[in-house]
Amino acid sequence: MTTYTKASIGAKILVIDFETSGSSFKSYKDTFQQFQGISFGAVVADSQTFEPIETLYREIKFDDKYTWSAEAEGIHGLSREHLNLHGVSAEEAATDLAGMIFTHFHTGKVAFLGHNTNFDIEASKQLLEPFGVMPEVHHVVLDTSPLGFITIGEYKSDKVFEFFTGTNRGQHNALDDALICLETVRNVRAIVDSVLRAEK
Prior knowledge:
The protein is of the alpha/beta class. The protein is built from eight helices and five strands, in the order βαββαααβαβααα. The protein has helices at 28-34, 70-76, 80-86, 90-105, 117-128, 144-152, 157-165, 174-199; strands at 12-20, 37-46, 52-59, 112-114, 142-143. A five-stranded mixed β-sheet has the order 3-2-1-4-5, sandwiched between helices.
């Protein structure tokens, strides 16, 4: 079994995507002082093949101490009423996510993958830190936003995901987006591998 060392990110990565009640243009930290992560999709994946191993999706009841944005609701389609009827408590959501992380990563560092990954890391901290279960983040952070800019000159998720997976998204679903993100890096790896094979 491959574990974390200074030379390896380990056998698995954590792909995560959060939808939120809004966002701030000041900073990610400022966003999560004002707004709440209201749903997440998490995928544990093989770090070499980028194939999914386990998935988790949770919607979280809205806490009125945070701000609600109608613009954000238009993106993810989750209303406060829906969340309060169908969402779980923050504690339950944190317990489920922490259980997934500890099952696959134990107490080691976790390499995160996402689109604007640092946003989702801050969302993870908002959910997990109050319960003392936020894992240590690996220094290698995998991100399809800069990957898209480097490879095709686009960094917005709609453009990057459409180019590499053919996906035209409507309203954003956190688990769908995490899986599309994973498919994106899997396809980029396949493209590079095919070019290298062709050159031999």
